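2024-03-11 09:14:02 INFO receiving multi-entity request
2024-03-11 09:14:02 INFO entity count = two
2024-03-11 09:14:03 INFO echoing inputs for audit
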Amino acid sequence: MRPMTRSRHPARAPHDPAPSRWAYKLQRVWLTPGVRFLVRRGLPALLVAGLVVGYFGDPGRRDAIAREAAGLKRAIEERPEFRVDMVRISGGSDPLAAEIRRILPVTFPVSAFDLDLPALRRSVVALDAVAQAEIRVEPGRILAIEVTERVPALVWRLPDGLWLIDAEGNRIGPLAARGDRTDLPLVAGSGADRAAPEALALFHAARPILSELRGLVRVGERRWDAVLTGGRVVQLPETGAGPALDRVIALNDAQDLLARDIAVIDMRNGARPTVRMNDSAIETLRAIWEQQHGEDA
Amino acid sequence: MRDLYRTQRAIRARREAALQRGVVAILDIGTSKIACLILRFDGDPPDAAGIGPMAGQTRFRVIGAATTRARGVRYGEIVAMQDCERAIRTAVQAAQKMANIRVDHVIACFSGARPRSYGLAGEVGIDDIVADGDIARALAACDLPETGARRETLHAQPVNFALDGRSGLSDPRGQTGRDLAVDVHLLTVDAPVLENLAHCIKRCDLELAGVASAAYAAGLSALVENEQELGAACIDMGGGSTGISVFLRKHMIYADAVRLGGEHVTRDIGRGLNLALATAERIKTFHGGVQATGLDDRERIDTGDDDDPDGRIITRAELIGVIRPRVEEILEEVRDRLDAAGFDHLPSQRIVLTGGMSQLPGLDALASRILGQQVRLGRPLRVQGLPQAAIGPGFAAAVGLSLFAAHPQDEWWDFQTPAERHPARSLRRAVRWFQDNW
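2024-03-11 09:21:47 INFO inference complete, emitting structure
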C-alpha cells in the first residue's frame, strides 16, 4: 500500500506529467473561445484606449499637442511659396482702385492660407461703384482683383446733393457739381433710382426735344414729370409715359406746342390732355377775345 | 427502474446538449492507458450518390487525440481516485491543446466492473397496428431479473421484435398484429465502479454525457458490417481485462469480461525472468511472441538498457515460454465464456481479436487453435482526422465510442415511459379496483 498521508511530498512520487488542478483549470478557461477573444482582442484594445484616454486626459498635454500642431501649420503656411506680397487691381478707374486698396482688410505680406477670398470679394462688391469683382491669388505672390465698374447713366438730384446712378438705379458715388457731368441726364425726386430704366427710356423717347428738357422729376414715387426749360412741366401718366411723351412731341411738331406760353401740359389722363397757360397768356387771350367780340360784350 | 429512467435520461439530455454544441470528448479509461479523443460534429454529410451512412463516421471529425499512461486503474476499475483523476486531466488537457478548444462533455467507456448480460423478453397484446406506445408497453412487460445488490444497468437495448411469431423484425411500428414480443439485452455492472467513474470525471470539471462498455465500443469499431449482421464476437484484449462482446443483426446480444489482460503477462515476465516491470513491458512489446521456433533459441535479448546497464541476457524462447501460458489461459477463459453464452449456436462464428494485446505476434494462430478457425485480427475503423498514432488496435474502444456517440443505439429509456407507470394512472387503477371489489 502506498503512503496516503505523505503523498504531498513530490520527491517521493514517481514522475507524473499530470498538470496541477490550477494549470488544468486555467488552460480550460484559456481555451474558452470567449475568453480567448477577450484576452487577445478585447484587452489590448482596452489597454490602448485606456492609454490614449489617460494621455490625453491631461489638458496641459492636449494644449501642448495643439500648440505643436498649430506651430507646424504656421510654419508651412509661412513658407515663402505661399506668401502674397502685393495686390493688383485691374478693370477699375484709379480712384476706384485707390478706394479698394483703402478698404481691403489685408496687410501685406500675408500667407495665402490666411486670405479669406470670399470675404474679400464681399467687401469689394460692397463698394457702390463696383458691379462685379473677381479675386484670386496668382503666381508671383500677387493678389489679383478684377473689378467691373458700374457705368454712370443718370445724375440724381437729392436734397443732400447730386449722385451718380447707373442704368439699374444703383448709386455709384456723389457728384460735386452738375457741370462735371453735363453728358448725363438729370433725374430728381425720391424713388427715381428705382425707376431708372424707365427714366432712361423716357430720355430716349424725348430725343427730339432734348435741348429743351432739363430733367425728369419722380412724383409720389409713381410717375414722372418732365421739366422743360422755362419751368414748363409735362405731367406724364403712371403707365404709358413713353407714348404720352410721344404725343406731346407729335403735338409740338404739328402745332408748335412748346413754343407757346403755357405752364403745364397735363397728360395724366390720356383721353383728355390738358394745357394750363400762364397768367399773361390768359390776359392776352382774353384781350384778343374782347377785341374780336367787343361789340358783343 | 424509475431511477434508471431518470439518470439515463439526464445523461441522454447531456449527450444531446454536447452534440448540439458540436464538441464532445471521448474518454477510454483503460488499465494501461487512458485515451482521449475530441470530436467535432459538423452535422450530416452531403448526400452523395453511392455513399451510405458509413456507420455514422462521416458525421464527425477527430480534432484532438491524446494518450497517457493510466494511473490508479486496475482491471478496468478505478482504484486510486487522485491518480486516475490526474491521468484523465493529463489526457484531456493534451487533447484540448491539440484541438485548441475546450470540451465540457465527455463520453466514457471502461472495461471492468464485472459486466453481466441478461436476455429479457416481454410480450403484450395489441390492437391492430403497432404504435410507439405499444413498444413501450412491450418493454415494460419484460420482467426484470434479479441483478443482485449494488448493480447498475449500463445498456438495455431492444434487440429483436416479434409480431405473431414472425421474429427478426427490426422495426415493428406500423405493422399489423396481435401479439408483440420484444427481446431486450440488459447489461449490468457494479454500481460503485460506475459511481467512482462519474465522480472522477466530475472532479475534472467535465460532465458525463454517456457511458458505454468498452467491449461493446470495441465491437462497434472492429467488426465490419457483415460480421455485425451475421454474428461475430469481438475480443478486446486490454491491459487489465479482456472484454467479450457478441453481435448479431447489428445488435450486441452478449457481453462479458475476463479479468485478465496484458498486464498479467507483464507481471509474469517480471516474476519469471526476475525483471523490473518497466523492463518486462518493454521486452514484451519489442520481442514478445507466443509461437516459439528453433530460431528463437538463438535470438538473445539484452534486458539491460541505459538506466540499468547490468541486465541479463535471455533468449526469446525463454520469453515466449513465459508469455504463452498466460495468453493461453486468457483465451481459454474467453472460450469458456463464449461457450457458456451459447456462441456455438450463432449462424456465423467469426471471432475478431482487437485491443492492445492483440498485437502480440502469433496470437491469431494461437487463438484459432483455441477459439476456432474463424479468427482474425481487427483494427478499428478509419475515422476522419484520427492521428496516425491512434489507429492501432489499442484504440478500438475509443474509436468505437466515437461511433457510439455519433450513432447511439436505441436504449430502453429512449422510449416513452409506459403509461401504466405514471402514478396518476396507478391511483386511478387502485380506485377502480376498490369500485370493482367493494
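2024-03-11 09:21:48 INFO post-check: The two ends of chain A are 175 Å apart (CA to CA).
2024-03-11 09:21:48 INFO post-check: Residues 80-149 of chain A form a domain with the Ubiquitin-like (UB roll) fold (CATH 3.10.20.310).
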